[in-house]
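Example record used in the benchmark description.
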Amino acid sequence: MQYDYSGMLFSEPSDGVLLVTLNRPERYNATDAQMHAGLARLFAQIDRDEDAKVVVITGNGDGFCAGGDFDMISDDQDNHARRVQVMRETWEIAYGIIECRKPIVSAINGSAAGIGLAIGLLADISIVSETAVLADGHAPLGLVAGDHMALIWPLLCSLAKAKLYALTGRRLSGLEAERIGLVSQAVPTEDVLGTALSAAEELATKAPLALEFTKRTLNHWVRAAMPTFEASMGYEMVTSFDPDLSRRLAAVRSPRG
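Model output (structure tokens):
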């Protein structure tokens, strides 16, 4: 099956393993409008790809995915129709990962935030660099923590930890993320992709139907939290029209921010 998406590269490093590489390294693979829209469609296509048994998703360069590109956030601030579109696309990304029949392994090779961290943590197995910086970047901008925080963090690392990081916007390392149960495994940066590919190759040898329905069964825990997720996205949209957002965005983007 052919894949043609802005800001992404596709390869087959071994039989049955599809490697997706987020490819905007000059922006730490932050998503622009085209890339965000592509991610909303991607996992449904992977689901239909009979040659892909397992998916690995990683980032090109020093980062995994820095979330939404700040230029896109600024341009969309006063555009109601565009904000609704982005919200719908975010739903499709989350639902796409959860409902995809194929196991998804994230190779979080560097910093991840926002929608990038959502993809990394919603994956079925998450391999992260020990030194990667992870952050839900909403609070520093004055936004409600949508994307994934309310959906998956309480399930992975407890409600107490989720509140700590959601309300403060603090960053944490890959090692700390492993310690609190947020990710599957933390390894040295140079071993991230190899470890993820090794896991994918192991999965590719197993019975596809057993993997599909095991993933589906376990993801009922995530589906049960979907009303919370959709509420968080609606609340985020409300705060995205806060007049104070422009000032906070400028402060975060400045060298001293």
